[in-house]
Amino acid sequence: MKALILVGGYGTRLRPLTLSVPKPLVDFCNKPILLHQVEALVKAGVDHVVLAVSYMSELLEREMRVQEQRLGIRISLSHETEPLGTAGPLALARELLDVDNEPFFVLNSDVICDFPFKDLMQFHRNHGQEGTIVVTRVEEPSKYGVVVFEADTGRIHRFVEKPQVFVSNKINSGIYIFNPSMLSRIQLRPTSIEKEIFPVMAEEGQLYTMELQGFWMDIGQPKDFLTGMCMYLQSLRQQAPERLHTGPGFLGNVLVDPTAQIGDNCTIGPNVTIGAGVVVEDGVRIKRCTVMKGARVRSHSWLESCIVGWSSSVGQWVRMENVTVLGEDVIVNDELYLNGANVLPHKSINESVPEPRIIM
Amino acid sequence: MLKAVILIGGPQKGTRFRPLSFEVPKPLFPVAGVPMLQHHIEACAKVPNMKEILLIGFYQPNEELTRFLFNAQQEFKISIRYLQEYSALGTGGGIYHFRDQIVSGSPEAFFVLNADVSSAFPLTEMLSFQKEHGEPNSFVILGTTANRKQSMNYGCIVENEDTHEVLHYVEKPSTFVSDIINCGVYLFNPDIFQHIGSIFQKNQQDMLLEEPTNGWHRAEAIRLEQDIFTALAGQGKLYVYKTLRFWSQIKSAGSAIYASRLYLNQYHKTHPERLASNKEGGPKISGNVYIHPTANIDPTAMLGPNVSIGTGVTIGAGVRVRESIILHGANLQDHCCVLNSIVGWDSTIGKWARVEGTPSDPNPNDPFAKIDSETLFRDGKLTPSITILGCNVSIPSEISRGPLFSRVLHRHLRLRLRPGAAQLQVGTKFSFFIDVNTCFPKLELLFSITLVEDDVLKVHSSVPSRGHCGCSLRPAMSCASVCDPPSDCLCKAVLCLVDFVALRVNKLRGSIQGFFFTSFLAFRLHLQRQQNTQRCSPSDFLLIIQTTHKSSLRIKWSRSLC
Questions:
Q1: For B110-153, how does the pLDDT look when each residue is reduced to its tens digit (9 = 90+)?
Q2: Is the domain of B17 the same as that of B48?
Q3: Which stretches make up the Nucleotidyl transferase domain (chain A) (predicted)?
């Protein structure tokens, strides 16, 4: 089976992390975002993954070669040289996708959830129509586009963008499965799949929904990245609790790479991810954070809701909170306070940042 | 033989030092590990031929003061006596009132020092200067150089550059007069009393000609600076000795930290044994640090520069203290960080908490810059200042109190209905509006209410309020009251949020979170009788409103009696 992942461009919302590394390769819970999706696809029987990119990265290409070997599948890159919207990339990859008349998956690269690919395929074959969209339930649907569908069959009636009054609390989760015949609907020009393709398919009764069980998050920006991390770690506790780290000084769900070193008298967690080769010195308190590979958190610091970038160094007695994001190789000097600071790579911070701002 | 007089003021003076001066008289507040006054006394006792030190002020005799005097006499082996004024007589009135005491024993000269200054006190040099330059029986003022802008906050001295005579003296002028300022240290001889006497007579004459309003206070309240120096300038009697050595006023708590730094630095020469050093099994020391021998400090803590640790203080593992004064009995738990703050008596700071203030140091690039006399408000915004934790304050773990932009408001309403009688009535309601401009995600207001009964601090309390967040504004609390006050307190203060109105929501700043909103919070502070007594005694209350995020607080008060 085949799958298309809409990787897109520069990942600007996840800066400063995406200034060092293309977004699909940013580590989410100690594994590149893309790999979460690809591995789930492989488990469901996919043997060819197409990445639709608008920005070609050597790093990405190289990494994908490695993964091809490792997973034993084929990974192609489909590069759009001019913007094609959300549907255009499918048309661009037509030759790769429309091969053996098998349905193919499409997913948004920012999405993290308990990927239901096997169930999705089953459901799709059962109703036999052209497309199935996975929907998920959210608390504030008016921030998104909602889907209105028949509760028992799942047949979609219509879509409503950012409704003013409550219409439905199910939104498009960014995960689809289509029959190759649907590709003929898309022309090779900037096309919006939500605005131009889906409404037509729904009208013809060709579009169905499957409701996602479990968590879902679009982790395209730091705040949601951390929220998504909490959800993922919670689901890990239910499915593979042995992967989480326990012991004195560890609270709640904590994921620690085996090569990381944690000092004495620390209190780590809940909801913390510690990457490979990270050094956490004595007396550190970390909650709701991601610490990327090779970073160092020096003694007696206090971190909450932060992302510490690769190889960064956080000084002693530092306090960081409120979605502070450090890019790659950032140095934060001792005894500072960072509140919502967004720090670009290779920067050295000498002064406290009392209010959220970007440090260039 | 010589004498020295130290003017120590009284409880109504030194209001900018509150709330610290509620616990302990300001002259006894520890600076660089010892009471402020001790530095003066030590400097005076060093002068050869010094026979007696007199303290003049209008504090009621209290245990602290008495104990201090006793210990000081033992240590410095010199007679030290406290002469209590019957009311505030001003900087000149006090010494005039006690002139007989001062001249008894026929001293050839006597020093007068203000208690609220920190200085190297070059007293012997002033004596030599007077003998060399001055007319016999001339008086000397100790002066130092300030920068042009700040000089107008002090007494300004115009000197004859050759003879060093004071040609002109103005106290706090509104336009620039001179960059030489009055340090509050003087060298007089008994002739000064003639001059004060004639001013006193003149005041009495003036007073007789007017309607008696304030009674007999006015005549006897004489200000050395405005009344005496201004008149003596240019008469060939008054000289100025300029010093380049350190000098700073101690008016506010922030200036106590700065003064501490100056004295700690002086300890290298005068008291090297008072400075802590890096030892096996001891904490890491950086710069000048004073640690009282009874303090208990974990070896993984890091202290300094400019830190004073008081008696019985406990400092846990991995604690960082910098530019701060930690007072008696405080407990700093593991991994906390205290910067630019004063931690009050018996307070506790929880694990990983951060207590941080903004230093108010003078511009280090200007050699003549002096510490700013801090005004509470500037352009409608509270000025950032040193963070002060009063007595018995408890900071929970992992909390940040007063980072760089903390605003501490001392609000102090004084009602005098009849002199001497109960001043704040039970049932009195005070309403105030807080106009807040603050930034997502949370506004947290910490209210501390302290009631004063008979000039004694009675109630310590703090009422944290969870503020409103971002778009969905909702009242934080419907009613909040202070924690149970001590049982011997007659009054209880109850603070309620009465109303709140949100305006101008969600102005987005920058490309990441930064919501601004303005809201009015209306509170009522209600005093309730706690015990079944007729007497209701709070004479005063102090309301401290602190926020942990940058905000401008504008406060409007109104008062109603029930």
A1: 999 999 999 999 999 999 999 988 788 899 999 999 988 888 88
A2: yes
A3: 2-234
Query: In terms of DSSP bridges, do strands B284-285 and B302-303 run parallel, antiparallel, or are they unpaired?
Result: parallel
Same domain for B98 and B224, yes or no, is yes
Integer Cα distance of A112 and A36 in angstroms: 8
- Confidence at residue B388, expressed as pLDDT on a 0 to 100 scale: 75
Q: Is B343 part of any domain?
A: yes
Q: Is residue B258 part of a domain?
A: no
Edge to edge, what strands does the sheet with B331-332 contain?
A: B296-297, B314-315, B331-332, B348-349, B394-395
- Chain A residues closer than 8 Å to B441 by CB: 322
Structural domain contains residue B255: no
* 3-state SS class at A160: strand
Q: How many CB pairs under 8 A join A and B?
A: 79
Say yes or no for a CB contact (<8 Å) between B335 and A356: no
pLDDT for B479 equals 35
- Domains along the sequence of chain A with CATH: 2-218 (3.90.550.10), 238-358 (2.160.10.10)
Q: Do B63 and B94 lie in a common domain?
A: yes
Over residues A223-234, the pLDDT tens digits come to 999 999 999 999
What 3-state DSSP class applies to B502?
Answer: strand
Which pLDDT tens digit goes with each residue over B478-529?
Answer: 334 444 555 555 566 666 555 444 433 333 333 223 333 445 555 666 666 6
Give B-chain residues touching A352 at CB under 8 angstroms: 403-404
The answer on B475 and B446 residing in a single domain is: yes
Active site residue A23: no
Range of the domain at B33: 2-249
Please tell me the total count of domains within chain B: 3
Do B234 and B284 belong to one domain? no
Residues of B at the A interface (Cβ-Cβ below 8 Å)? 300, 317-320, 322, 334-335, 337, 339, 351-352, 354, 356, 398, 400, 403-405, 439-441, 510-514, 549-550
Residues of B with Cβ-Cβ distance to A285 under 8 angstroms: 335, 351-352, 398
Catalytic-labelled residue, pool A118, A162, A170, A293: A162
Shortest Cα distance, chain B CAs vs residue A20, angstroms: 20
pLDDT value of residue A177: 95
Strand partners, A134: A175, A210
**Of B306, B311, A231, B287, the residue nearest B297 (C-alpha):** B311
Main-chain phi, psi angles of B193, to 5 degrees: -70, -25
Residue B254 belongs to some domain of the structure: no
One-letter amino acid for residue A70 of the chain? R
Q: Are residues B13 and B116 in the same domain?
A: yes
